[in-house]
Amino acid sequence: MYFGAPVWPWRWNPPYEGVVQHLASLGLQGVELICWGSEILPLVSRRYTPEQLRTLDDDLQIEHYTPARVRDYHRIFDASGLTLTNFSRTPIGLSSTDPQSRSSAVDKVARAAEVAASLGSPLITLITPYPFEMNVPPMMARPIMQEWRMDVPRDLDWKRNYDEFVEALAQCCTAAKRAGLRVALEPHPYRWMCSAQSMLRLIERTGAENLGMNLDPSHLFPCGEIPHFTVYQLGSRIYHTHFSDNDGQTNAHWRPGKGKVDWRAVVRALSDVGYTGAISIELENVPGSGHLGSDSSPELDRELQLSVAYIRATCDEEGIPTTR
């Protein structure tokens, strides 16, 4: 296994060339790139209507990755020795009741898969949607809410919505396969995939041989999952990881060792199932982390280096090799 990190805790919006070079200078071997779209806006603001979200979708973000820019990224990867571990993109609409919206979302995934392949990524990472593309309250607010409420219309056809989402996801996997990529779904609370069993069900329902999970304990743990159980249940379908610690109540992304996740058990399980990929440190709620419209501060570098040291020491104690 080897250590990497996503670009977005340092800089949410492109360009990312400087961040990639900076992560290489910190001694990492892997990096994640992303194309944000409208899926991120509900996480940072409640000011947008669904119609506005659609107009703020990913056209400008995906256009960042022009052929010339892709060549620039390749030069940076070659010069730094960094490996591009995955390319993240999640369009809105995969669980919409509107066929046109679902078709548009699949097309955007297909386009992102082509970009990912041109960058040399083996994976495209998707976050599964909420049922019916609902606007669910943010989980970080749960501890301070007196009553955790989510009003749902009583006439919704839940089976049909799931079936249509499965069909759209299968089409995404087909598009990724054409580009030579695997698809790593990231579990998130309250979404159509939030656990090992819901991941296994999607693998069975889609029949996609290139579908697996991006293991993210900070999303799994507050859903009631024991992260190393998830590793054993999915085995070779663990395609990538996001390492950050968690309180078991919210989807906080803290430095490993600062929360309640049993990291010794997690790395042992990954080793047992033969995982040799990236340990990607994703720190979003630590000193110095960046946010939409605000880049990181040097404190984030220290948090990253402490995270790598903690996980590496844990692996060393377990006799699990990591690339240095």
Q: Summarize the amount of helix as a percent range.
A: 40-55%
What class, by secondary structure content? alpha/beta
CATH architecture: Alpha-Beta Barrel
> Poorly predicted ranges (pLDDT <50, ≥5 residues)?
41-48
Largest sheet: 8 strands, parallel
SSE order, as H and E? EHEHHHHEHEHEHEHHEHEH
Q: Rough shape?
A: globular
**What is the C-alpha radius of gyration, as a whole number of Å?**
19 Å
Whole-number count of domains = 1
Average pLDDT value? 91
Topology-level CATH name: TIM Barrel
Q: Total strand count, please?
A: 8
Determine the N-to-C terminus distance: 10 Å
Strand order of the largest sheet: 7-6-5-4-3-2-1-8
The total of helices stands at 12
Provide the β-strand percentage band.
5-15%
Give the SSE layout.
Layout: E1 2-6, H1 17-25, E2 30-34, H2 41-44, H3 50-55, H4 59-63, H5 67-80, E3 83-88, H6 99-119, E4 123-127, H7 158-178, E5 182-186, H8 196-206, E6 211-215, H9 217-220, H10 227-234, E7 238-241, H11 263-272, E8 278-280, H12 299-317
Parallel strand pairs: 1-2, 1-8, 2-3, 3-4, 4-5, 5-6, 6-7
Helix pairs in contact: 1-5, 6-7, 8-10, 10-11
